[in-house]
């Protein structure tokens, strides 16, 4: 279950919900642009790192690194910010506690990726570091500006949470990995995408020796 809370199928709609909530009030429309730029940068870094490995084998055998963990990066970027917005009605202390839970949720998702052998420790650390940098930067900017989020009624809060809840219930995951593999096959001079096994077993060394014979 923790793994699904880091899936693109759930987190991309949550990122859009954040934009919608920020656009709702005139005073926070500029804030929505800040959010779009930050989350866009996080997504771009993750995608480029993954395509670099899938298409060109750019990674680290020593660190067992094939790209930023997308689950970790997006979770750490989105959950603290979304919870900060949704907790706008509660006291400052409770809001800080709620945001801390958002950070802990992202950390749990990252740990689950290692436990499930979906990512190496280095990939999860890189993803969490990127995501926490994004969410913390955004929240600190809002703190320095004294940004006030429009309060949501109980009915509005239920409506906002309805889509994520429905996505959790249906349990389907986004086919992001297969999509990235198709993109890599299209843009890179390869017939098969690079895999972690290639990195660890030496396919990259073999390919390099063919390209650059001694």
From TrEMBL:
The keyword Transcription does not apply. InterPro entries: PAP2/HPO, PAP2/HPO_sf. The chain crosses the membrane at residues 6-24, 36-56, 68-87, 94-115, 121-140. Keywords: Membrane, Transmembrane, Transmembrane helix. Pfam families: PAP2. Residues 12-139 form the Phosphatidic acid phosphatase type 2/haloperoxidase domain. SMART domains: acidPPc. This is Phosphatase PAP2 family protein. It comes from Acerihabitans sp. KWT182.
């Amino acid at each position: 279950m923790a793994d699904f809370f880091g899936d693109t199928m759930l987190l991309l709609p949550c990122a859009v919900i954040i934009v919608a909530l920020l656009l709702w009030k005139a005073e926070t429309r500029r804030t929505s642009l800040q959010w779009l730029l930050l989350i866009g940068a996080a997504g771009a870094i993750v995608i480029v790192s993954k395509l670099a490995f899938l298409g060109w084998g750019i990674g680290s055998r020593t660190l067992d690194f094939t790209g930023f963990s997308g689950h970790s990066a997006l979770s750490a970027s989105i959950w603290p910010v979304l919870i900060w917005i949704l907790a706008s009605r509660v006291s400052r202390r409770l809001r800080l506690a709620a945001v801390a839970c958002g950070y802990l949720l992202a950390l749990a998702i990252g740990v689950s990726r290692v436990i499930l052998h979906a990512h190496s420790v280095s990939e999860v650390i890189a993803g969490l570091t990127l995501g926490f940098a994004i969410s913390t930067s955004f929240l600190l900017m809002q703190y320095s500006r004294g940004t006030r989020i429009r309060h949501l009624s109980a009915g509005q809060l239920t409506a906002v949470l309805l889509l994520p809840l429905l996505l959790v219930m249906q349990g389907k995951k986004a086919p992001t990995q297969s999509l990235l593999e198709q993109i890599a096959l299209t843009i890179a001079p390869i017939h098969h995408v690079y895999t972690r096994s290639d990195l660890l077993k030496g396919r990259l060394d073999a390919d390099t020796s063919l390209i650059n014979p001694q």
